[in-house]
Design goal:
The complex is a heterodimer of chains A (about 375) and B (about 240).
Chain A (H helix, E strand, L loop, with lengths): L3 E9 L6 H9 L6 E2 L12 E2 L3 H4 L6 H9 L11 E5 L5 H9 L12 H10 L6 E4 L4 H14 L5 E8 L3 H9 L23 E9 H6 L6 E10 L12 H14 L6 E5 L6 H15 L6 E2 L2 H4 L6 H15 L1 E2 L21 E2 L4 E8 L3 E8 L2
Parallel strand pairs in A: 4-5, 4-6, 9-10, 9-13
Antiparallel strand pairs in A: 1-7, 1-8, 2-3, 6-7, 8-14, 11-12, 13-14
Chain B lengths: L3 E12 L2 E4 L34 H16 L11 E6 L4 H11 L9 H4 L6 H10 L5 E5 L7 H12 L4 E8 L14 E9 L6 E3 L4 E3 L2 E2 L3 H16 L1
Chain lengths: ~375, ~240
């Protein structure tokens, strides 16, 4: 098996323009939720989201491009022979909103995926790019796809990029589905009552060992194992027994050739909805039994960013391994009794080389990634 | 990546010229035009609780994948670890637009949760995996090239990666792509049931391209014509 190194990463979220600012905010238990300014929210169950303030002032239709531009401001460390994989659920959905609001203005010409077009041009990548849509497991799926490409000697370098914005389309939908919290997102809390949406863009650069040595790059960590499985249960509700997630985790452990006791922490999907968090607790309990590692979720701080969430969570997980610190679960007050001793209420030190990060999405898909410290 | 021999167990399509399947000896074509109306009976003679909720994209994908499984004789014998992959240009755009039309009156008060649930194009794949109890990977890939092969290539890669034993892979696009930039993809839903062949096969994957009897396939239409003609020759 070829080693899959992580050599660069970055993100923009409602808690700043870098992984460093996000990390410091998470450790300080800060929450980035604020009232949405870009559309009216009077008819929805909440007016909060993890919006990036600067995007509020960007004209409708241009916010998605703007978030990509922000994420690309840093000098991304890739070479032109990299393969580009992207992960988004709704790409530039504002173009479709505008078309429906006023279709008489201009004939619509939609890009198939504006994100891959923009990034391939911006990053100077000529290899064929692939956009993967697997709902909230899109980024997790794209990362494991990239890891497989390196593992199978198809390429030496992959950049995975994920992005989604807070749009009225998505905001109204989660409100209508009644999975949006009427107050705030509090993952793994007994009193949790839904999610808060967020927006984010981020990237992770994966590289083979040979390329790391040739390019004299520094490895930040490794993707050691990965797994993916469907529930075969329901389109929008998770399997309450968490069997799909269990299968994904077991596949990742097998791929990594480690035991469940080697996992030092779990960065869970942790949306704050009643059913998702309950499903995850069940799945983790089945896999880890009485030796449950510390669990956390960052969605109480930045909200649920959908397509890119798995990527943002992977790079936060990487930082946890580097610093050997786990951030608190923001807004968590009263943990679910089954994981009371495991879910982190405050900044906690960790000890170990492996971190598990998981995602589950509509369409009944689950992904699991195991990161290794270097 | 070493070359992979690919067995095509079955396949089916819904195109503007009609509905067909590989082993049935039907002729494949994929013209521009309106896709046929789909009746629930194509799926099952029994009442289907969820049928009425599905948009055309989901119906077309579910029916084409189901007919492909039937064509392969695997409806009740398909491996549970089978993956489901599709490529698309416009994906769920029809239901996206229908959903947002439900948002506009009264500033979102009437937004339809039933429509919203299908605004993720991978939910169609979820319908397939739920119906057949499949627990393998599912994902939608954007079809950015005119060959319409991205889903099938991704599916074959999943087999070669060892992430599944087989795959229901295809292409699903329910409208002409005149509203999209840089594509000339056709309307239609085409699914194949693919497995790793135990011995040398007509269809092989060299890591980046599909070949049929050593001829590189430029696109989905050529692949389907090769498959259907090959079956006809075998039937003669």
């Amino acid at each position: 098996m070829n080693t899959v190194h992580i050599t660069d990463c970055g993100c923009v979220t409602c808690l700043g323009d870098s992984l460093e600012s996000l990390w410091q905010s998470l450790l300080a238990n800060e929450c980035g939720f604020k009232p949405v300014r870009r559309f009216k929210t009077d008819s929805y169950v909440n007016n909060l989201a993890g919006c990036i303030s600067e995007l509020d002032d960007i004209p409708h239709g241009k916010r998605f491009g703007a978030i990509l531009e922000k994420a690309c401001q840093k000098d991304i460390q890739i070479t032109p022979d990299a393969v580009l994989l992207t992960a988004t659920t709704k790409d530039n959905i504002e173009l479709h909103e505008r078309y429906i609001r006023d279709s008489s203005k201009e004939p619509a010409k939609f890009p198939v995926c504006s994100m891959t077009d923009y990034l391939a041009k911006h990053l100077g990548i000529e290899n064929p790019a692939l956009n993967i849509n697997a709902a909230c497991a899109s980024a997790g799926s794209a990362i494991l796809w990239g890891a497989e490409m390196i593992n199978n000697d198809e390429t030496d370098m992959v950049i995975v990029f994920g992005a989604d914005i807070v749009s009225e389309f998505v905001f109204s939908g989660f409100s209508a589905l009644k999975v949006m919290s009427p107050d705030t997102g509090r993952p793994f809390d007994v009193n949790r009552n839904g999610l808060i949406l967020g927006e984010a863009a981020g990237y992770i650069v994966l590289m083979s060992e040979a390329k790391v040595l040739k390019e004299k790059r520094t490895s930040m960590g490794k993707i050691k194992g990965w797994g993916v499985s469907s529930d075969a249960h329901h389109i929008t509700a998770p399997d309450r027994k968490g069997r799909g997630l269990q299968r994904a985790i077991h596949s990742a452990l097998t791929k990594a050739a480690i035991g469940d006791s080697d996992i030092a922490a779990i960065n869970a999907h942790g949306t704050g909805t009643v059913h998702n968090d309950a499903m995850e607790i069940t799945a983790f309990s089945k896999v880890f039994g009485n030796a449950m590692p510390p669990i956390f979720s960052i969605k109480g701080a930045i909200g649920h960013s959908l397509g890119p969430c798995g990527l943002i969570e992977a790079i936060v997980g990487l930082r946890c391994l580097q610093e050997q610190i786990i951030p608190p679960v923001t807004n968590l007050q009263c943990p679910e009794p089954e994981i009371e001793g495991c879910v982190t209420m405050q900044k906690t030190s960790m000890k170990g080389n492996y971190l598990l990060t998981t995602n589950s999405g509509f369409g009944n898909i689950n992904t699991a990634l195991i990161l290794e410290k270097v | 990546m070493s070359s992979l021999n690919v067995a095509v167990a079955g396949g089916a399509w819904i195109t503007a010229s009609g509905i067909g399947c590989i082993n049935g000896g039907d002729e494949f074509s994929m013209p521009e035009g309106d896709l046929p109306k789909l009746k629930r009976e194509l799926l099952s003679s029994k009442p289907e609780e969820r049928w009425g909720r599905l948009d055309y994209y989901s119906k077309a994908g579910l029916v084409a994948a189901s007919l492909a499984l039937k064509d392969a004789g695997l409806v009740s014998r398909i491996s549970k670890s089978t993956a489901v992959i599709v490529s698309t240009v416009s994906g769920s755009v029809d239901v996206d637009h229908a959903y947002f039309r439900s948002v506009l009156p009264q500033d979102g008060l009437l937004a339809s949760p039933n429509l919203f649930a299908y605004t993720l194009p991978n939910c169609m794949l979820g319908e397939i995996s739920i119906r057949y109890g499949l627990t393998g990977p599912t994902m939608v890939v954007s079809q950015t090239t005119p060959d319409m092969l991205s889903g099938i290539l991704a599916g074959v890669k999943l087999i070669s990666y060892g992430l599944c034993e087989g795959v229901i892979a295809g292409y699903c696009n329910t409208e002409e792509c005149t509203n999209y930039i840089d594509t000339s993809c056709k309307p239609g839903a085409v699914f194949l049931v693919l497995q790793k062949a135990k011995e040398k096969s007509h269809l092989t994957f060299n890591g980046s391209n599909l070949t049929f009897n050593s001829r590189e396939l430029p696109g989905l239409i050529d692949l389907m014509r090769e498959l259907t003609q090959n079956i006809k020759m075998e039937l003669q």
